[in-house]
Amino acid sequence: MTMKSRTACSLVAAGLTLITTNVHAETLEIDGRTMEVRIEGDGAPVIFVHGALSDLRVWDGVIDALAEEMPDRRLVSYTQRHFGPGDTPLGLPDDFSRDTHVSDLIRLTETVGNGTPVTLVTWSYGGEIGLHAAMRRPELYGTAIHYEPILFSLLSDLPGGKRAMQEKVRKVFAPAVGLAKQGDLNGAAMRFMEGVFLMPEGSAADAPVPWPTIWQDNSRTIPAYGAMAPLLVGCEDLGAISAPTVILQGSESHIDTVMMADRASECLGNALTINVPGANHGIPMRAPEQFADMTSYVLKLLR
User: Is 45 a domain residue?
Assistant: First the structure.
């Protein structure tokens, strides 16, 4: 699996101003709307897409390490619409949707790519958004690395898929939903993350800084995230993506997560699966330097 080296065009930098949410963050104006971004380096663009109950801060450790390893890359992380800290309850805004998040990623890609195909690095829900963006605008994306993309519709035709999903609901979603219904969104966020990352119950508050803060800051998105309509995708849809793609999966992850990663890799037209020994869904949190090393290796492999 190879790809030609590409020379990046310069970023349209107008409208960038410092903000206070993150020491590294700036705002980028696109179509009259501001988007919180972090941009490091100058070169071939790489966009990092975060998952649920999080924001661009989840990539800081990875980008810090990669900025030293790969100074020839422009590393871009961003906060998807309505995620991140907020002073008021989020409610159920009409534009908190998968379709909105896909469209926002496409516009960001057009802006930072400026005619140059971009590499995607995604995690969890971010993988769903990244794959849909690549299906809609394949010319924008040259390569992709997806760490355990979450695409629940892929489980429907797999033997044992529905049972695996039911087990995830019972162990992870149901306890968090119960707390959310009681009005305890912070508790729901922490319980959800404990389930997803296979952490002991009650341990999320003791996770490394700034992770507990990130989860609590994004707890207000739980009702809107749970209410989003699905964007269904099948194997045939993914097969239309021809960009070289690597699917990373942890050997210790939930069975439904592994099944989705395996199925996505099978369906994609040009994909390779790499198993990460001893890891689960939380490796970008637990070992950002290791994730950066894997990303650097794969990016060099895909050149």
Answer: yes
